[in-house]
Amino acid sequence: MQRRLPATGTLVEGVASALGAGLLWGLVFVVPLMLPDYSPAMLSFGRYLGFGVIALLLAWADLPRIRQLAGRDWQVAGELALVGNLLYYLFLSAAIQLADAPLPTMLIGTLPIVIAIVANFGGEALPWRRLLPSLLVIAIGIALVNGHEMAQLVGQRSTHNYFLGALLALAAVAAWTWYPVRNSRWLRRRPALASGTWAIAQGLATLPLAAIGMALAGFWQPDGFDYPLGPQPVRYVGLMLTLGLCASWLGTLLWNRASKLLPTALTGQLIVFETLAAFAYAFLWRGSLPGASALIGIGLLVVGVILGVRAFRPAGPV
User: Fold this and answer.
1) Model pTM?
2) Is residue 53 part of a domain?
């Protein structure tokens, strides 16, 4: 059974929401490089502890709608918080610290293809002949940028670190393939659920998990690490709150909006915005410019998104 294509206005609003989420989520790829002395657990639990505290404050302003959430809503929010938030960023931050940002970014960059394929196997979106062209262009773009970045990083990290970082990045891909599909399908089952309320609910579900994780992380810190705030407490707290507010709460709110407006197979492709933002931030942090092949690859990623959006545009004059 195929799902009805979104109207043009809905399509534009949904793509804009996904773009905003991608720009905010791209921040999570550069923060581990800004805090190299902090373990992946400290980065993951710190970010989501910040998200949970911010959600707790925002919940007071949205209390009537928060009280309307059913027990099943909280169960799903907890599942999404554990897999899509804590485990995903734990795997990702560890991969970035082991293999630098480009390799995990490129593996995470396969998410637009993986999610679109997984979602479309449910028959909810498009015939494969309309979906495959955009996926093919995105795949070529990912391959080009990946080849450029791997050539740049040869010899900078050990083979063991590259391999382990790649495995952890693939685990992050698995976690975040499950998250948007599950999140999108639940939002469609609950059309009256506001995007902001659902973002706050996920933050509230994340808070106790992050608090427990942060407490346990204290037992596995290296000798000399000043737990819980570490050697750069002001930078650590500031960046964790920034990620909690921007990447977690606002990014989740915008993604929820996109998930309600667009088919999952299209929102999956729009995660490429996160990949593009992550590249831009990583290049800025490193103070370098992408090479010719990387620029061609980035251009193909943009073209792939355009083709994907056009494939979901309703037929007839606009």
Assistant:
1) 0.80
2) yes
